[in-house]
Amino acid sequence: MNVLLTFDVEVWCRGWDHLDEAFPSAFERYVYGRSAKGEYALPKTLEILNDNGLTGVFFVEPLFAARFGRQHLAEIVGLIRDAGQDVQLHLHPEWADEVSPPIIPDHRVKRQHLCYYTLDEQTALIGHGKRLLLDSGAGTVDAFRAGNYGCDRNTFRALRNNGILFDSSLNACYDISGGDLRDGPWRFVPSELEGVRSFPVSLFADGFGKTRFLQVGGCGFREMREVIENAAAAGHQELIVVSHNFELLKANSSRPDPIVVRRFARLCRYLGENRSRLPTARYSECQLSDRSAAAGRPRAGRRATLGRHVEQLFRRF
Ligand SMILES: [Zn+2]
Asked: What pTM did the predictor assign?
């Protein structure tokens, strides 16, 4: 079973009212996360991956650079590529009304999710994002994740129009994700959609039967390990784990969150030790397979989920 360790990489300025004043410190936090303990945003994430010989897929949001300058995007892409890791496209179209010249004619009102845009608009936005990444040294861009998982069927058509043939946007824990794709299995299993290979974010049943998705900030290490083992035994061919460039940091701070750092380090050590059985991969290495579609939803045990609840309590205090 391939494990896809995916990181959505984005920069936010705490609202939209004072973008230019807020950007420099936001960029520092989201990209480097400097504190007395080290740089726990991208640099530490990349270091932990590489120390364990793992491959990560970094879905980088480029539209912010249409506002603030491509050198900032090139800096992010350079950090990731210098570490030997994979850069792919993430897109938050809520930047579309903040950039000039405009990317689409109807750009005056902010629209958050990609599924709020027409096929032509999605094609233009994705194409612009891909060009920004390529011009910033990204190499090959062949995989995509929509911001907030807010894709629809047109997203897959727009991806094909742009020659991006892998997608990992669907997340059935989000209502906005694939809203017009509910009458088929697409939101739950890997499948071909409009000529694009779709690998939804992996879901699991936690120890109390609740459906969750595999995110480093929201699952305990034992839960993740049990779900990975359970999915491999059930015949899944790939497992998609989600994280972010800022996930090792405390909320609204550049200080590391020790619980999440430890959790991520343990996950990476475990995957490194089991590399031959559970290789970390890029999307272009994944095939669609009937075995994955037929395998049941993996689960975590009750003790593992209880452990996560205790950890989350500690994080809160
Ligand atoms: Zn995002």
From this structure: 0.97
